[in-house]
Amino acid sequence: MQLRMWETVCAIAKRHAHRTVVVVSHADPIKAAVTYAQGVPLDLFQRTVISPCSVSAVAFTGSTPIVLCVNSTGSLKGLSPS
User: Fold this and answer.
1) pTM of the predicted model as reported, rounded to 2 decimal places
2) Are residues 58 and 68 in contact, defined by beta-carbon separation less than 8 angstroms?
3) Domain extent listing, the chain
């Protein structure tokens, strides 16, 4: 599931390069994709919390994804990488 989710997110990002996209899912698939981007092994991904209606953001700016935020419930300002 983690690899399928990550490959899907990467395909969406590639299809919409240089644009902002929103991907919506249940907590565990989001958690799986975000932890994959961070290099966290699947057996440790349950250590990450993804709350209902929270935002987790990943920037695809090159060969390595950049996790901008995880489980944010505050303002979306400042999600652009500096």
Assistant:
1) 0.85
2) yes
3) 2-72
